Amino acid sequence: MQFNHKETYEHLHRLSGVSIQDLKATFDALGTYMILNFMEDKQSYIPYIGNLKTVYEGEDYVSGTKKAKVSFEIEVDDMYIKNVGNAVDNNDTDIEKRILQAIGDELTSIISK
């Protein structure tokens, strides 16, 4: 499985205005938080997403290299569920409202200069 980290960081940067460097540091800390919780057999709360529990399912050997098999159990956050439902029903989501507010704030800032 291939992951496009660069594209994800760039997209999150455009949505949030947070620097790519700060996003990388945040996700690195999130990964550490999740591993530490796994080591203590705890779930990890990811804001807006929900509770994730890492499940170790054993090991595989891929090209002679040992690789852990891992999955997640998830308890989805109510706000995420609400926004998915609104998106499916073509209703405004909290995400759209936040993006429109951010755009409006940025335009107001530019016009005020």
Q: Give the ordered list of helices and strands.
A: HHEEEHH
Strand order of the largest sheet: 1-2-3
Mean pLDDT: 87
Question: How many beta-strand elements?
Answer: 3
| N-to-C span | 47 Å
- What's the alpha carbon Rg, rounded to whole Å? 19 Å
Q: Which term fits the overall shape? A: extended
> What structural category do the secondary elements indicate?
alpha+beta
Which residue ranges are poorly predicted, with pLDDT under 50 across at least 5 consecutive positions?
none
- Residue fraction in strands: 15-25%
Count of helix runs: 4
Question: Helical residue percent?
Answer: 40-55%
Main beta-sheet annotation: 3 strands, antiparallel
Characterise the protein shown here.
The chain is α+β, with helices and mostly antiparallel strands and 113 residues long. It is built from four helices and three strands; from the N terminus they run H-H-E-E-E-H-H. It has helices at 5-16, 20-39, 78-88, 94-112, and strands at residues 44-46, 50-62, 65-76. A three-stranded antiparallel sheet has the order 1-2-3. It is extended, with a radius of gyration of 19 Å.
